[in-house]
Specification:
With 261 residues, the chain is mainly alpha-helical. It has one domain. Helix 4 runs antiparallel to helix 5.
Length: 261
Amino acid sequence: MQRRQLLQYAGAACIALPLAAQAAPSFAAALNLAGRQRMLAQRLAKAWVMRGLRIAPPRAETVLAESLASQQAQLAELRNYTPSEGVRAAHAELERGWATYRTALAASSNLAAAQDVYDLSEQMQERAHRLTLAYEMGSRSPAADRLINIAGRQRMLSQRLAKFYLFGLWGVNAVAARMEVNFSRAEFSSGMSQLGGAANTLDEQRAAIEALDRAWVSYRALFVGEGFVKVAAEKVVEGSEQILPLTERVVALFERSAATR
């Protein structure tokens, strides 16, 4: 696949079709959309730090703008699909966090503001994860919906790895950032094993998982070592954009499978 196509798909991956525009909004679609909020929390911080480090500035602005619009629109869509008290409470908490995070992201990308963005991106990821789990708790097809969640975690981790690498390069919580890179790398590898071993995986799903695994081998290699280097960071950013649409493809296929059950 050509680089231009990958970047186009990566941008499109963050602008999901609104639930209201779908013919029959499904529980699986809502679970996927909730899980995407975890990824966007990480991708927003990644783009914000890219801007501060002056890594691919035009792309940083594009990714930031797209992700801001996506987070706002998808939160609004999920507001209209809250089937339980647990989901409603988790969604309200996420919206409160989003108001604060959005304000922080509007600040100039500088070291004085970086700690706030670091902390708030973590809080948003945790709140989005709680919302995803709240949806999953109401599942009528736990095994199928669990795969959507696992695949969605891979989507989030693809951006989390890049986010922490860039924060580490900037000297923001560098020791903790390195630990988080290592944890995220290990979790991604574990997730690939779980997806690869999923029972009754269809040929199309298997092909998408294999394509993701091939990309993961190359992306994972960028995080070997203990230091943070700007030349490597540029490759990390590129890799994070290339692997994102592949994770979206896997999530979409598991969502489609779960929606037919």
